[in-house]
Structures are given as C-alpha cells and as structure tokens.
Amino acid sequence: MTFAQRLVLSFVVCTASTVAYTAALGAQQAAPAPAAATAPAAPVSPTTAELKDAAAKAPSPADLQKGDPGGTVTGTINDVPPSDPKVGRTIGDVANQLGQSTIAINFVWTLITGFLVMFMQAGFAMVESGLCRAKNANHTYMMNFLVYGCGLLAYWLVGFAIQMGGAAGNTNLGGLAPLAGEHTMSLFGKTWGLFGTVGLLLSGHAYDVGVMVIFLFEMVFMDTALTIVTGACAERWKFLAFAASSVLMGALTYPLYGNWAWGGGWLAQLGSNLGLGHGYADFAGSGVVHAVGGITALAVCLIIGPRIGKFNRDGSSNPILGHDISAVLIGCFILAFGWFGFNPGSTLGAATNGNLRIGTIAVDTMLAGCTGTFGALLYMWILKGKADASMSGNGLLAGLVAITAPSGFVSPIGAAIIGLVAGVLVCVSVAFIENVMKVDDPVGAISVHGTNGLWGVLAVGLFADGTSNYGGAWNGVSGSVTGLFYGDAGQFAAQLVGISTLLGFVFTFSFVLNYALEYFIGHRVSAATELKGLDLPEMGQLGYPEFVLVPEPDVMIQAEKQFAVA
Amino acid sequence: MAATKAQGRSFAFFLVALAVGCVGMATWSTGIGKLAFVAGAVALVASLFGMRRIKPEEGKPAQRAGSEGAKLGGAFVALLGWLVTLGGLHVVSSTGGRIVLALVGIAISLFGMVVLLPRAVNKNAIWKA
Q1: Distances (CA, A) of A32 to A22, A28, A42
Q2: Does B67 reach chain A within 8 Å, measured CB to CB?
Q3: How far apart are alpha carbons A557 and A562 in whole angstroms?
Q4: Domain boundaries defined on chain B
Q5: Domain A103-539 is found in CATH 3.40.50.10680
Q6: What local confidence, expressed as pLDDT, does residue A12 receive?
Q7: Would you call A238 an interface residue with chain B, using a CB distance cutoff of 8 Å?
C-alpha cells in the first residue's frame, strides 16, 4: 500500500469513527426516559448503610427465641419502625423514635409521680381523723374521701381551663400546643396573664395526649390544697357546706392563683416584664398548693368558729385530744412517701431540660422532712418535757411543705436548714393561732400548710443557689433561679409579691366566697349535732359502731348543758 | 336535725347547674352554648337559694351573729395590703424600693387577717357567753 493510499484509509477510518461516535452520542441524548415502573435506586448514604449494617447484626428471631436473661439483646435497631419499608430504616426514623421515646419517658414519669400524689389523700385522711375524736371519725374520713370527687369534678368542668388554659409551651410534654388561650390584660405597657380559657371538660382541642398528662398531675395537686381545709374545720363543718365550698375552691380559688404562678399568668411574668429575678418561682407548690390551702382554712375557720368546749370564758384553751395517734403517724409516712411524687414529679419529665436533678430534689425533700421532725420534736421536748408525737408528725409535714417550693433550686444543706426552721415555726405558729388569735384548728393545718407554705415561698427567694438548669431558663428568663443569699435581690422581691398575693387576694377571695356560703348554707352543724358527734347525724353511721366511747371531760358536759336543745 | 334528703337534692341541683353552665361556656360559640350558660348560672343561684330555704331545718349552731361589718372590714384591709404591693411595683422602679413596699403590703394584710378579723370574730364568740 502506498503512502497516499494509507493516508486516504486513515482519513476514512477517522471520519467514520467520528461520525459513528457522534451518532451514538446524539442517540443517547435523544433517548426517552425509562418507564417509571421502578424508581431509580436512591444513592445509599453512608449513614443509611450503617443502619442497614446494624440491623443485619441485630439478634435474629432464632437468637431471641433462646431467651434474654441479662437484657443484653432486647431492644435493638429492629425496634425502630421504618416509615417506608421499601426504603428501609433511615436516620429520620431513628430521630423520630428518639423524640417520641423522650416524650414517652416524660409522660410515664409525670403520670407515675401523679399517682403517688393521689395516694396522699389516704395520708391526709388518716392524719386528720386520727387527730379528731372518735365520734367524728366517719365524718372526717368522708370529707377526705369526697373532696377527691368534688375537686376532680370542679377541676374537670372549669378549674383546669382557668389554671392551665394558656399554659402552652412546655416542651417536656410535647409542647401542650392546644393550651394557647390565656386571657391577658395590658397594664403600664406590659402584657399580663390573668386566666386561661381552653380546656373546659377537656373537650375540643384539649382532647390531647399531653393535655391529659398535665391534667392528671395538676388535678392531684389541686386536691391536696382542698383537703387541707377539711382538717382545720373538722368536728363542726356541715357536710353540705364542706362539699359546696370544696367544689367552688376547685373551680375558682385554686385555679386562679395556679394560673398566675404556673399557667402563664402575671406572677410568673414578674421576671420577664419587670426584671424581678425569674418571676415568682414555686417549684412544686408551697404557695400554690399549701399556702392556698392553709390560708383558705384560716378564712373558713374564722367564719365557722371554734369547737364547743375548746376555749374557756377567760380565753384559755382546752386540749381536745385525737383518738388514734397510730393513724396520725402512719398517715404522716404515707404523706412523706407521696411527697416523692409531689416534688421530683414537678420536673414534669426525666429525660430533658435538666431533669436529671430529680435525685437532688428527692434528697432535698427527705432532708427537709427529717430536720423538720427534729425541729418540732426537740422544741416540744425541751419546752414541754415530752417528745410529743402529734407535733413531731406535724414537724415532718411542715418540713415537707416548706421544701416544696425551693426543692428544685436549693442544695441539700439549704434544704436541711429550711426544714429545721419549719419544724420550729410550726410549733410557734400553732401556739400563736390558738392562744393569741383564738382560732381553733384541730389538726394544725393552718400552721403546717399556711405558715410553712409562706415560709417555703420565701425560702426560694433566699436559698436558691443558681445551680439548677431546666432548659436554660425559668419563666421565660434565661439562667438559673437564684436567691438573695446568692446575689439576686430581684428574686426575693418576686417571692414577696407572691406572698402578698396569697395573704391579700387569696385570703380575701376565700373569705368572701365562704362568707356567701355561710349566708346560703351555713357552715356549722347544729350544737346538738356537734355535741353528739357528727358521725350519726351527718353520715348516718358511727365510725366505730362496736366501740364503747369514754365519757366526755367535764368541760364538755358543762357545754352540753349550755347548748342543750329540746 | 342534721343531714337530710332535702340537702341531697339541693347539692345534686347545685352540681347539675354548675355542669350545665360549664358546658355552656365550653360551647359558647354556639347559640345552644350561650343558652346553656345562662340556664346554668340561673340554676346555680337558684340552688343556693334552695339551700338557704332549708337552712333553718338543720338546727341552731353554736354561733352568735354580730360584728359582720368589722369582719368584712378586716378582710378588706387584707386586700388593701395586696393593692399596696401591686401599686409599689409600678410606682417604684428599684428592687429595694419594691421589696420595702411589698413588706409594707404584707404587714397591712397580716394586720387585717391576724388582728382585725379575729378581734371582730371573737367579739361575740360562744365561749364568752
């Protein structure tokens, strides 16, 4: 082949190749998209590949059939359901499951602790009845029994809506978004919450899993406040008046203050609106529950008057002994047990936002109860010469009441001091209320819950040490709650405003409400009923029908002659 | 005479009235809701007056009336203390000033609750008879 022939052949081959390549390229670009019978395989990310690998390495059904005594192979990636089985498990599936598990942990924690608080009703019943006379046992137990129903009904109908109807935003329980109905007022350029409006009968948007959890938890707290009043007014409170008063307290009095403190109301906004610390801070309810209950008890006691035979003509008081000290002390232990739900449960969760402080809160609660017991026991032992059982029990309760508000914010040493002061304070307060004010409180409820509830509120403003961290903020103000002793006078001021509201508003509101009930119903039983004992006339049955009761002391016999009704 | 059937009926009526009123509030946006609220409120007041009607049948309690004005006055003084505290929040801007006024308000409230009211209540106390 000559050079010229080779040159022509090369040119022809190159040209032919170029034409063929170009034709092939154009054919590829012009080709239609393949039919969509199967989607193209998504590119497999390294994370998804890891998930598939982990699923493959998880124990097989054959492995699981052998049993898992050590719990090491139960609960694996195969328990995370994929949102699309065709695609398989993705990182989004795992993230969603993590979120739901976090909320589920918080739900279970809040519900279980709420169940503990509900059981405190039994403790209150035993303490109150044990401190009253046997002839009133049935009536006293029945008040504590029915107050659960009265409070729950009122709270379900309207109280919860007033208190928590505007409480949306709690991330622990999924956000509580339906509770977005806070009625507000503008004053001096700031917006202040007054009461909620969503959640009557738990209907409408309030029919929500998170709302149900917070309803149960808040309801059992409300009932604790209501039951306090039954103890102070025992042995002469007409059952009808007690029932009506309890319904109205559960519907109005408690929810109003509860909204202001916990439901997005103005007391909690003192920090964000006026710069007073973190606003009124009451972790588990020294103010909201115990002081409201104790102060309402004082209001009703002032209306109802003392028991026949309690005071002599010269104003000196006569001890009226309870009939069952064993019930009192066992009841105190039941209450102390339930308080492990009251305080640690108020984190409303165990999986988020600093909730691992639940151990500290529980220990603070125990310590305050312990030092409260010692405070009262030693005070009575030194002053009166005896280790008084009923005051020791009240000392335990006083310590627990006082630590309720600060439990989420203080150290164990602070808790011990708070409890010790409470134990002494309850003894001083009982004497003051009985001997100076001449108010008859058969169980010391006003002193245990009212006086020490106020002390607990104040203790937050003094002892909060700034180490807690519940999501980096409290009441919308960033940082930790800190008291006066640790540098925040604003917090102390906010607590004083809360105390003033309890004394000035809650007391007056309760007094006026029950004063109206006195007009319509009359709080007190007849003198004849009171002397006979409330069990038969009010309840139709004796608490101890087979017991032969000891005769009344002379002072009661004199009173019978004075109040004898034909 | 103590607890009676009439008391039971009155309390049942009271609870039903409250429930109807609350259902009315829950369904306020509807016409039936407004009607239920009004009916419930009226029934609630009626139930209270029904209880007042049977009150004398329950016997005479060991209480003596009197000083009602002084009792309400004591309660009003307690409320006044709270108003002093609230007023202080807006009149004074310093934390120290607000603390002082809050303490003044608390003292006024306690005076009403612990001094005035008990004095009024005990003026005609049964144990003085």
Answers
A1: 18, 9, 20
A2: no
A3: 9
A4: 5-58, 68-128
A5: no
A6: 52
A7: yes
Asked if the C-beta of A47 comes within 8 angstroms of chain B's C-beta atoms, the answer is no
The Cα–Cα gap between A411 and A240 comes to: 45
Q: Which of A239, A247, A527 sits opposite B62 (nearest CB)?
A: A527
Contact between A476 and A272 (Cβ < 8 Å): yes
Which CA distances in Å does A507 have to A185, A337, A467, B81, B102?
23, 30, 34, 11, 17
pLDDT digit string (tens) for B90-109? 999 999 999 999 999 999 99
CA neighbours closer than 13 Å in the CB half-sphere of residue B30 = 7
Question: Quick one: pLDDT band at residue B112, thresholds 50, 70, 90?
Answer: very high
Of B49, B89, B122, the CB nearest to A497: B89
Q: What mean pLDDT do residues A158-171 have? A: 95
Grade residue B65 by pLDDT with cuts at 50, 70 and 90. Answer: confident
| A220 SS3 class | helix
Residues A306, B121: C-beta atoms closer than 8 Å = no
Q: Are A533 and A561 in contact (CB under 8 A)?
A: no
Does the beta-carbon distance from B51 to A243 stay under 8 Å?
no
A395-433 tens-digit pLDDT: 999 999 999 999 999 999 999 999 999 999 999 999 999
- Compute the residue count for chain B: 129
**Which residue in chain A is spatially nearest to B95 when comparing CA positions?**
A490
Mean pLDDT value across chain A = 91
Across the range A32-47, mean pLDDT stands at 57
Structure tokens at A47: 């994370």
Q: Which residues are CB-contacts of A45 (< 8 A; sequence separation ≥ 6)? A: none
Which residues are bridge partners to A170 per DSSP?
Answer: A175
B32 touches chain A (CB under 8 A): no
Given this model, what pLDDT does residue A112 score? 98
Encoded tokens for A16? 């032919």
pLDDT grade, residue A14 (50/70/90)?
Answer: very low
Residue A96: C-alpha distances to residues A83, A101, A188, A204, A355 (Å): 10, 9, 44, 27, 21
Return the domain boundaries, chain A.
103-539
Query: What ipTM does this complex have?
Result: 0.97
Beta-carbon contacts of residue A548 (< 8 Å; ≥ 6 apart): none
